[in-house]
Amino acid sequence: MEKVTLVFVLCFAAMVPSLVADFAVYDTVWKQRAEEARNMTMEYYVPNTDIIANETFDDPSALDLIDASGNSTRRNLRQGKRRYRGPCEATNPIDRCWRCRPDWEANRKQLAKCALGFGRRTTGGLDGEIYVVTDPSDCDVREPKPGTIRHAVIQKRPLWIIFARSMNIKLSQELIVTSHKTIDGRGANVHISYGAGITLQFVTNVIIHGLHIHHITPANGGMIRDAEDHFGLRTRSDGDGISIFGSTNIWVDHVSMSQCHDGLIDAVQGATAITISNSHFTHHNDAILLGASDSFAGDQMMQVTIAYNHFGQGLVQRMPRCRWGFFHVVNNDYTHWLLYAIGGSKHPTIISQGNRFIAPDAFHLKQITKRDYAAESEWKTWSWRSEGDAFMNGAYFVQSGDPNVKRPHRKYMIKPKHGLYATRMTRHAGALDCRRGRKC
């Protein structure tokens, strides 16, 4: 294990000059953050040491979730996100950790104990006080007003950030979040929309939960405060909903995302130890990008879990699109795509387990997978495995590589159920309608 780790450390260290070179205009504070982030990436990378063969799946034969034609009525009914009015349900292991308790508001921080997958060590603002956002404005990005979300996220101490009421926050510039923060939208209907998005750059230990993020646009940049004691010049932002750049221990859970100018979620430049779970993605072209460049080998330390999400109406591609690293795609429900669902380049390892895939009606769009910029003689060695997935309406997954590829320790690999359970496990994907004094 030590030898494997050393190889990756040396490889990533070799990439640092190109990483820092992109920020020649940055001051010494940002260069120090880049160095600290590099060290965190090496600390939280998990070597591939386990061979997990013959994974067993629960027998789905007794399920009443699928009709005789192989299509669930949920494909039609879920797209409008009709409010669920039944009793509280916790249908997957993450939700069972905290949901359906009438005292969830008094015990908000229970959420910090619930992450699974590669982001399982993320606790966010667990060790900090509660910060209540009372003001949705974002008028002064250099001297943020107390009570605003921008003022909250630049504090250098750990914080658990909540919202006094429902609000729409139109960010005038990208929201630069510091380490050890939880942004918790439960108990309010909180929209980040019609402005800039959220940036996690060279930080560690951040939870984003319970937000609606949509209609995100590029921002021009300028002098923006990125910590209590520092502000600096930022260039134009891309218009990503959530941008994860060189950051570790990140958990995005129960968000609803659509219609951003660039990606819904991007994770790039050495980001690792990430879990994206229980979220609802709709109406977008490039949904999730994991690794932005074929030339940045530092991303071979990227490890990301995509679990219990619903990829829904109006999506085109990149659910996710991967480069270099190791990606566990487990128990998601794919009801729509227009080009492909899962793709990649530069020999990523992709383990697809217990997902449900409903292909589009067009004959030429049935394939789930897409491999870019490589001939079959090259990509046939890439480890892309499908285990316990459910394929409907002609969907098919093109496998490649060693079926016994080594994987990280089992505690970082969420134990899957068969793909026919994916509908149930993702039933409450997206921002929840949590009301104070009631089960969430």
What does this structure look like?
The chain is of the alpha/beta class. It has a single domain (2-425), classed as Pectate Lyase C-like, CATH 2.160.20.10. Helices cover 13% and strands 29% of the residues. The chain contains seven helices and 33 strands. It has helices at 2-21, 28-44, 74-77, 93-96, 149-153, 376-379, 422-425, and strands spanning 50-51, 129-133, 159-163, 167-169, 175-176, 181-184, 190-193, 198-201, 204-209, 212-216, 222-227, 230-234, 242-245, 248-253, 256-260, 265-268, 272-277, 280-282, 284-286, 288-290, 303-307, 310-311, 315-317, 321-323, 326-330, 333-334, 342-345, 349-353, 356-358, 369-371, 384-387, 390-392, 406-407. It has a ten-stranded parallel β-sheet with strand order 2-3-6-9-14-17-21-25-28-31. A nine-stranded parallel β-sheet has the order 4-7-10-15-18-22-26-29-32, with no helix packed on it. It is globular, with a radius of gyration of 21 Å. 51% of the residues are buried.
Specify Rg, calculated over alpha carbons.
21 Å
Largest sheet: 10 strands, parallel
User: How much is the average pLDDT?
Assistant: 89
How many structural domains? 1
Beta-strand residue fraction = 25-35%
Strands across the major sheet, in which order?
2-3-6-9-14-17-21-25-28-31
CATH architecture: 3 Solenoid
The strand count comes to: 33
What is shown here, in short?
The protein is of the alpha/beta class. The protein has seven helices and 33 strands.
